[in-house]
Specification:
Helix 2 (42-63) runs antiparallel to helix 3 (68-79). The chain has 107 residues and is mainly α. It has helices at 12-36, 42-63, 68-79, 81-93.
């Protein structure tokens, strides 16, 4: 048996609930982005998909708490989305809190 990387057993219920909630919210954002063509919200969608993948890797990691692969994926996919959310915050509020602007950005 491999040693446990976490020092505890990750909760299946918490990881499944977080993954489901992020999947629901990300789906809602996808609908709004394509319906209203607010393309500057794409970082939210990418971040949400990464969060879902990160919590899915945490579920896998619960069954194999000593495996480095699922742990690394979970760690990476749960640490990258806040960078994307901060990027969107900067786009939306970087102009003195005015309306969203992506001047100078090519999407």
């Amino acid at each position: 048996m491999q040693p446990n990387i976490y020092g505890y057993v990750p909760s299946l219920a918490a990881a499944a609930a977080a993954s489901a909630l992020f999947a629901i919210v990300t789906t809602i954002h996808v609908v709004y982005v394509f319906r209203y063509r607010i393309w500057y919200f794409l970082p939210i969608i990418i971040g949400g998909m990464l969060e879902v993948g990160g919590f899915a890797a945490r579920i896998i990691s619960r069954n194999e708490p000593g495996a480095l692969g699922p742990y690394a994926v979970q760690d990476l996919f749960l640490l990258l989305p806040p960078i994307l959310y901060t990027f969107l915050w900067r786009i939306c509020c970087g102009n003195n809190g005015c309306r969203p602007s992506i001047e100078g950005f090519e999407i």
